[in-house]
Every structure is written in structure tokens, then in C-alpha cells.
Design brief:
Protein name: Protein phosphatase
Family: Belongs to the PP2C family.
Bound molecules: manganese (II) ion
Keywords: Hydrolase, Magnesium, Manganese, Metal-binding, Protein phosphatase
Largest sheet: 6 strands, antiparallel
Number of helices: 8
GO molecular function, one term: metal ion binding
Structural class: alpha+beta
Order of helices and strands: EEEEEHHEEEHEEEEEEHHHHHE
Helix content: 10-25%
Radius of gyration: 21 Å
Number of domains: 1
InterPro entries: PPM-type-like_dom_sf, PPM-type_phosphatase-like_dom, PPTC7
Length: 326
Amino acid sequence: MAIPILRAAMIFHSQSQALIHSLSAIDETPKRRKRVVFSSSSSSELNPVIRSEVSFCVGTCLIPHPKKVSTGGEDAFFVSNYNGGVIAVADGVSGWAEEDVDPSLFPRELLANASNFVGDEEVNYDPQILIRKAHAATSSTGSATVIVAMLERNGTLKIANVGDCGLRVIRNELNYFSQCWKLEFLYVPFPGHVIFTTSPQEHYFDCPFQLSSERVGQTYLDAAVSNVELIEGDTIVMGSDGLFDNVFDQEIITTIVRSKDVAEAAKALANLASSHAMDSNFDSPYSLEARSRGFEAPLWKKILGMKLTGGKLDDITAIVGKVVSS
Ligand SMILES: [Mn+2]
């Protein structure tokens, strides 16, 4: 995404200290733990009940914008195996480069701070409070969209989202019923479908809600907050707009089904987004949206009777998390 909110109204400060944190992909192996719960029956006997807890198994992939390969681009992410698992993506607003500000500094520092606060008592495992504390601790100039998802061991996924990063939850209903009825012979590869999706928040086309170093930006109070009950076998896909602007949900599902594990799925999704981004003939989610807002093809294309098409060149972050019992 390109446009910082109300750039003309911003007051620029000289930053004496810009914190730069490089966040790299961490593929977390879920902790194996079964909790034995003793519940009393009507006959007051103690019956041991094995309650399965869940956590994420995560794969990640980041492909920078083709012109930003040397700097790594302006997306940032982190993955933590704290509790059931914490996943976050931030996307720096590239328009800051016009003000001689490195747009990658703010999102990287924001997520470095967020990763430090994951176990904080005041955060209390609430993604919206995590965003508040991380934002308050960030001193770099710039702005970023951000999404944070935190999984409880009981399967509750708590999401807070500011801007146009996104998250999808994909469930295979057949496997769901198989689990309910213990029909293990029905555990077969099946496409599944999206049971939850975030919605982008924006001021206008290509200008999303964003946390900022300036007062004109949004805050944690503007975050869209959702809770989703996940079950073993669910898959979540989190990404920057570079993923969801270039890949349709149905393609995401197909890609996940074809992949042997979460690492392969994340890589395949990012590669698919990257190839669509560079394909001027691909009718992407981005070009569909642009046409629906009244944007038109360049004149030479219109003369040839062609419509506005093509993917959107951007940094691409794809994170795939599979819910496993632990
Ligand atoms: Mn982006």
C-alpha cells in the first residue's frame, strides 16, 4: 500500500534514534502437552478425561517487492510459540520514502516491540492491548498496517487488525464431522472453505487505516477485533495486502490442499502472489476492486478495448498456521 494518511498534515520530527530490528522467519514446533483433567461424575468417582489442547504449526514466507529485494522490503512479521501461538504481520507505508524516511523502520520496530510484550501481564494475551503497548513503545517515524492473532490452548483465536493486512480461516467440514463422530476413515484430503475472513479498513482506495508515529494516524482503538473458535485441522492464512490483492481465496484453498506442509504452503502462496503481481493480464482481486471503484485502464489499453487488469506489485508476506493437538 502506498499512501500515508493525511501526509500533508503531518509534522516531521528529527529522529535521533531509529531502532532497526530484523525479524526473521521462525518455524515453530508446537509444544507437546496433554492436560489430564479429573472431573467428578454423578457417582462422585473421579474419572480421568484427556482434554486435547491445541497450538499452531506455522510456515512463513516473505517475498519483497522486486525493486526492494536488496533492502528486504517494508513488510515485517513475527511468530511465537507462546501459549497456543502468536502470529503478526505489519506492512510499512511506502509513501514515507518521499519524505526521506525509510518505510521499513516503523513496522519492524512495532513488531519487535510486540514480540517483547507477548507475555506481558498487562497485555493479558489480548491482541488489541498488545498493539497498544507495541505502538506506544515505537519511536521510529513512519506508519504501518498491522494484524495480530493469538491462539488460546482451548482453540479460541483472538484477532486485532488495523488496516488491510488480512487473515482467513479455512475449515474442512468433512474432517470436522469426522472428528465429532470419530469417523477416522473420513480423514481425507478435501478442499475445505473459508469460515472466517477479516475485512480491510481504509480511508479510501489504497489508503488503509494505519498506526503512525504522527497523531493523525489510527490507534489500537480503531482495530477490528474478532474471536474465532478453531478446531484441530483448521488452517489459518495471514498475510500483507500483497498476498490478498494478488491471490483469490479459492486459489489459497487449492494451494493449501496441494501442499505437503505449512512451510511448503506459505512458500507456494507467496510465489503465486508474486507471479500474479507481475502478470499484467491477470485479473487480480486488486484490479477487480480498482474497476469497481471506477478506476480505468490507461488510454492505449482502452483504445484497444482492453480493461484494467494486472496484479499489484508489492511486498508479499504469507503465513500459514495449522491447528494441531498438543
Ligand atoms: Mn503492502
